[in-house]
Amino acid sequence: MELIGLMFLALIFLMPLGANIYGRTRIRKLMITSAQTQSEESVKQHSLTAFHGLFMSMYVLLPALVIILCWLAFAPMVISSLLVSEISRLTGETDPRLLSIFVSKLEALYEGVLKAEFVEPEVRQALGYYGALIIRANIFLYVVTIATAIAGFVISARHISPRFAARDKVEVIIKRLMQLASGVAILTTIGIILSLAFEASRFFDVIPIREFLFGTHWSPQIAIREGQAGGSGAFGAIPLFAGTLMITFIAMLLAVPIGLMSAVYLSEYASKRLRNIAKPAIELLAGIPTVVYGFFAALFVAPFLRNNGSVIGLELSSESALAAGLVMGIMIIPFISSLSDDVINSVPQNLRDGASALGATQAETITQVILPAALPGIVSAILLAISRAIGETMIVVMAAGVAANLTANPFESVTTVTVQIVMLLVGDQEFDSAKTLAAFALGLVLFFVTLMLNILALYIVRKYKEQYD
Asked: Domain check: are 243 and 361 in the same one?
């Protein structure tokens, strides 16, 4: 079946190529025939040959892809429903939870992950039925998809003619695809918001929202056995918010000045040769995996700060917010530098020339003309950097720790919201406990923080854009 599936996929992508070649060849032949039998004015071709081939390719490929996507979306549910009915008939079981377990065992047995002796005999009897369902579903997919592609080929071939507006049809299809892509992006955003809101509402049914937002103790424990001491948990998220803001603030204190000054230097002062060397070198920092930054913070920066801090009388923890913030700032520098450099370079040259004509020095031109004109883009770069810092996990885990600690001392260990989300969702979890649902509440808070940052950035961009339009 795997070989047949690969052949099917190859055929699905070869058929549009064949349709493209056929459409091009057919329109050329029709133009030659028309030129031989009719006057020169009547044989003008409406669209280029490439559009005829592209039109046929789209009519063959797009309906076939729709069939495949629908099958991937609905076939598993149909097969699972039929399988549940068959297992229920064989075992006499009606409990949906037990039937779900039986289905999971049967699927694992079919895939070779689970041995037969670990599966109930009644469930094993449904193995042949399950295999037959899979084969029938695949055959149905192959037949319907290929038939749809052939139908698209025949229908599109009938439209090919010298006066056929293939270009207009192709542009309409591309426009619809763009609208669909926009709709998918919007629906995905709505789905993320609704999923966060739904799960967070379940959390707030158990834990008061006031305790979550204003509580100062975070210890999301749950009772493993009834009456266990200390198993109720504490879900005050203030230590997480404070740790996130502290590390982000330290990172931005390092990244914003260095990134912005390096962008100004590369754009306004550096020679072309130096710029061509320095900018790619700075951007290399963005390609380093965050886990490598975490190693760098844990093995070099944190020990360096601790050892040298003790020399001047400062007591630094082996895991500190300062170490994580400094390394995170280094990681963020290329985001601010590269984007700000591009924005500064896009400022019209006539603004520089006008400032020079009025007697402004280069430094005055930069501070009073170029930077205000580029401010919307610079704000966007800083916003991206802040979002990147808030969402960072590996550096914090390795350099700042995972213990929730409410402190204003950057020399102590803290943790962040994203680290706790990971910790809450690691391992086998049931999504009906406050401990697990707390991750969604934290995610919802991060969403609103990001939303507020975007609104602020949009306001600044619109305000200054009107002044320099």
From this structure: yes
Domain count along the chain: 2
Do the beta carbons of residue 164 and residue 44 sit within 8 Å? no
Is residue 244 domain-resident?
yes
pTM of this structure: 0.72
Residue with tokens 């926009």: 182
Closest CA to 220 of 71, 18, 30, 423: 423
User: pLDDT tens digits, residue range 273-324?
Assistant: 888 888 888 888 878 888 888 888 888 888 888 877 766 767 777 778 888 8
DSSP structural state of residue 463? H
- pLDDT tens digits along 142-174: 899 999 999 999 999 888 888 888 899 999 999
Cα four-point dihedral sign 294, 299, 300, 304: positive
Under a CB-based contact definition with an 8 Å cutoff, are residues 283 and 338 in contact? yes
Report the amino acid identity of residue 151.
A
Q: Which of 145, 164, 183 is the last residue of a domain?
A: 164
Residue for token pair 């700000």: 340
The domain spanning residue 256 has which CATH number? 1.10.3720.10
